[in-house]
Protein 1
Amino acid sequence: MQVQINKLKTPNRTIRNFCFECVCKSSWDDVEECGGIELDGIMCAFHKYRMGKGRVPVKTFRKFCLHCMGYNRELVRDCTTKDCLIYPYRMGKNESYSSLSAQNFTKNKTTLLDQKINL
Ligand code: SF4
């Protein structure tokens, strides 16, 4: 999956926006006052991060998606809801870091090859 880095929101921003949508975009006060307990009695994985504070482990998104899909890993992997804010993080990875790592690897490999040629 190719994700454009400049379009990918940070994990904190993603959760903030998701929580705002979750309260039907009514108000930020509603996000703050949210109790976090879902209909099935399980605490929402995002509740702790709803105010945009704290470092969000990307595994939090994976946990959320697994809950969304009834703990079926294949359904999370094959999720087609690409307009869901969580979608880029559903596999528990930060695509922007993955893309940057791939770019750095290619850049470093090219530099090493150049150095070998110049020897
Ligand atoms: S990306 Fe898919 S699995 Fe994850 S929360 Fe959204 S709809 Fe559910």
Protein 2
Amino acid sequence: MPIIEVNELSKIFGPEPRRAIARLDEGWSKEKLAAELGLTVGVNRATFAIESGEIFVIMGLSGSGKSTLVRLLNRLIEPTGGELRFGGEDVLAMNAKQLRRFRRARIGMVFQKFALFPHRTVLQNVEYGLEIQGVERVERRSRALEALELVGLKGWEHHLPAALSGGMQQRVGLARGLANDPDVLLMDEAFSALDPLIRKDMQDELLALQQKMKKTIVFITHDLDEALRIGDRIALMKDGSIVQVGTPEEILMQPANRYVERFVEDVDLSRVLTAAHAMLRPETVTSDRGPRVALELMRERGISSLYVVDKQKKLLGVVTAEQAAAAIRSGAALEAVMHRNPPQVEPDAVLSELFEPLSHSSVPIAVVDPDKRLLGILVRGAVLAALAGSEPRDGAGAMPETDSAPEGDIGTDAPEQPAHLAQESARPSAGEADAIHEEERRS
Ligand SMILES: Nc1ncnc2c1ncn2[C@@H]1O[C@H](COP(=O)(O)OP(=O)(O)O)[C@@H](O)[C@H]1O
Ligand SMILES: [Mg+2]
């Protein structure tokens, strides 16, 4: 359910700004409005909804309207036109008193310049926001201590800000934003002043905090990597307009226009795309089937290994054509000959971390959910295709056509080997086929 709904929200700076709205509807550009009417477009008819509990990133170059937009959300800036709802409530209809209460209780803000008071302790800095809201002493102290503990600053309460590193000062700013436990936290370039390594730590911590607290976070950044790392969804802005809203994957794989395409063209896809994106539908056999069924399935599909699952689709192991053939000869059950601990990853593993395991594995890598249910398999061909920018498949991916990515590529260790060759070599050998026929004669 959306917590924030924005409809045609605009902010124009300059005299008699409402004049500009009709011109924007006519398609005037930001430059034309500035040149002919002396008005500056801050935000141009933005329409989007932010879901409760998501990290919604607003990204764009400097001057694109990010700060203006985020300040419209808590009415630190009054809009020139449009609608704004918070939890269904009309924010633009609030009077001054209602607005104060709204800002205190429901929407917090963290700034880039942490704006700490140098002569107040860390604790007093975090308490400050609660103090001006009139929260009484004992309660504000306990809430501030709680917030400091959340951001990992327990033990630093009585230090002055100057004793803290930049990263720690930003945590104090974050604690101040969290102290009154708002539903939504607005963060305007909160990490942009930090050096890269500390910045990455803070991103990780924000993600961890988010997991724990389930806050809705509106995070502003001009940094694409940061946006892709932490955003559940990203809104990309240009000249005050939102040019695309989507998941990181949608922004990368289905850019809405040339601008978005150029914005994202240098991204290292392997650090963004996940196992879920590249996985194929697995061919499976249930453990109660015999090795002959397994081998026949492999022969039919032209693959050389098969995942063994139970009736709930839980992964039990993987069996190769050689193993199945050997089981037929010796009369063993599938479970007796299969590999019991095949390589496996979770669906959100990023592809860059999978090259190594993929290059060492003689069977496709299994993608499993936390309950070990088999969701899909990863083969080199499909991973490379995903990185080459081909369209993502639906969900677990359709069964590949016989001439596309190989379903199983056991025994091939050259990733550039064409799919049809990998399949060719993956077929059961004549010897194995003979074993099937021999088994059939006997039964
Ligand atoms: N108070 C203001 N008065 C006039 N123009 C402003 C004001 N604040 C922002 N702008 C203009 O609005 C546009 C968007 O600015 P801003 O929201 O700060 O962008 P960003 O945060 O993406 O860098 C810019 O052209 C900027 O110059
Ligand atoms: Mg800004």
